[in-house]
Write a structure and sequence with these properties.
Elements lengths: L3 H11 L7 E4 L7 E7 L6 E7 L8 H21 L21 E2 L5 E6 L4 E2 L7 H17 L18 H14 L9 H9 L6 H7 L6 E3 L8 E4 L5 E4 L6 E3 L1 H12 L17 H15 L5 H5 L1 H22 L11 H18 L1 H12 L5
Antiparallel strand pairs: 1-2, 2-3, 3-5, 4-5, 6-8, 7-10, 8-9
The structure holds adenosine-5'-diphosphate (ADP), 2-acetamido-2-deoxy-1-O-phosphono-alpha-D-glucopyranose and magnesium ion (MG).
The site of 2-acetamido-2-deoxy-1-O-phosphono-alpha-D-glucopyranose has 12 residues, from loops.
Length: about 375
């Protein structure tokens, strides 16, 4: 971990004339090291986000930044055309002296800095239907704005990211290798994953057959990757663009549902507090279809409920794999943290399986609505 002075010097690469008065670790992301930097300014402090990119996760950080700059440039153009505020409705990265949007320090670590979105917040749990609905509109709209983005110019920043079959193979490797001797303690969870193995190829198979179109998707659509404006209550900005890549609409829809249509946080230890909420699910369906502006095909709409099940199953499997491998991928803050996360996901999967018919009915209720 860098010292405060080192972080201060790194930030100055992006903003040589500034004199930060405070640098604090910030947010609840599982991947990057995120800091909020405060610089004295008239009328109070001006904030920035400074991030050290996770190099275990992102093997090619420069490619990640190329993707992000391409996408934010595109979004800024569209936001201006729509009369919006390009500095608030998408991320704005700062360049270093030589014009690059990242800094490589002498340890080989990659850093980036962006404007802090003020008067807005990310939530780790949906407090109410309204916020969750708002996040759905924002993620749907995000996909809509990028619908004609040249997808072939995007790098696959994490290969096979939502390839559930590939995730399953890695899970079985971790079970066999059992490098930390943790397998015996999680046999129930391992059984749970194995019993549902047939979920793995469902979406990919349909993609291979051309039944589901590939779109530019966000791929990490957690509620805490969208900022909700304090004054309007609207979702103002989709953040965490590291995984914007070609993908399926079911990934973005499903990942939001697994995180947000839940009655407890992702790492809740008391499973009696965790359940799948059809009320929140309905709010999200309504918002997402509205945000996508009816662009989804019939088959895509049919597969949204399955997308929620597969993404929740996949994420639980990833947490369990990381637990077996010794917690090297996701940041953890207590013993068994990844296992707790896996267990909440599996509880949600079980409940979604039971409520599949209602989940489908809700999509049917909104699919024929005309949105303006
Ligand atoms: P990770 O990949 O680790 O999840 P994120 O890019 O999502 O990293 O950032 C972590 C957290 O930092 C976010 O959940 C959010 O709370 C905060 N954050 C990130 N970017 C901004 C920003 N531009 N303005 C305000 N807060 C931000
Ligand atoms: C990670 O970066 P963050 O915290 O927004 C992960 C997602 C998982 C999520 C689980 C690049 O998201 O894929 O679904 O944790 N991001 C990456 O909470 O692996
Ligand atoms: Mg994040």
């Amino acid at each position: 971990m860098e010292t405060r002075q080192e972080i201060y010097e790194i930030f100055k690469q992006f903003s040589p004339d500034s004199h930060p008065s405070e640098i604090v670790l910030y947010g609840n992301g599982h991947i990057n090291d995120t800091y909020r930097v405060t610089c004295p300014a008239s009328g109070g402090g001006k904030h920035y986000i400074l991030q050290k990119m996770n190099r275990e996760v992102f093997q090619y950080p420069v490619r990640v930044m190329e993707n992000i700059c391409g996408v934010t440039g595109w979004l800024k153009h569209k936001i201006r055309e729509n009369g919006g505020d390009e500095f608030r409705e998408t991320l704005t990265f700062l360049n270093v002296k030589d014009g690059r949007p990242y800094y490589r320090d002498n340890m080989g670590e990659y850093w980036r800095a962006c404007l802090f979105i003020e008067n807005a917040e990310c939530y780790d749990m949906a407090k109410n239907e309204r916020d969750f609905y708002q996040s759905a509109v924002a993620f749907g709209h995000f996909q809509h704005l990028l619908a004609d983005y040249p997808a072939e110019t995007l790098y696959e920043t994490i290969p096979e990211f939502h390839n559930t079959e590939d995730r399953y193979r890695k899970f079985e490797q971790a079970v066999s290798a059992d490098p930390c001797g943790r397998r015996a303690a999680v046999m129930d969870e391992i059984r749970f994953v194995r019993q549902r193995r047939e979920l793995c190829p469902v979406l990919r198979e349909m993609q291979r057959k051309g039944e589901l179109p590939v779109r530019v998707t966000h791929n990490d659509t957690k509620l805490n990757n969208v900022m909700i404006d304090h004054s309007t209550g609207k979702a103002i900005c989709v953040i965490d663009l590291d995984t914007v890549m070609p993908g399926l609409s079911a990934y973005d829809f499903g990942d939001s549902i697994r995180f947000g249509a839940a009655t407890a946080g992702e790492d809740e230890r008391d499973l009696s507090r965790m359940s799948f909420s059809l009320t929140l699910y309905e709010a999200y369906v309504r918002g997402f279809l509205e945000g996508c502006q009816n662009a989804l095909t019939e088959r895509e709409l049919d597969m949204l409920p399955m997308g929620a099940i597969v993404m929740t199953y996949e994420c639980g499997m990833r947490f369990l794999t990381d637990f077996l491998e010794g917690d090297h991928y996701f940041k953890t803050h207590r013993e068994g943290h990844n296992l707790d996360r896996a267990r909440t996901q599996f509880k949600l999967v079980r409940e979604m399986e039971e409520k599949q018919a209602q989940m489908r009915d809700i999509v049917t209720k909104y699919r024929f609505c005309a949105f303006d």
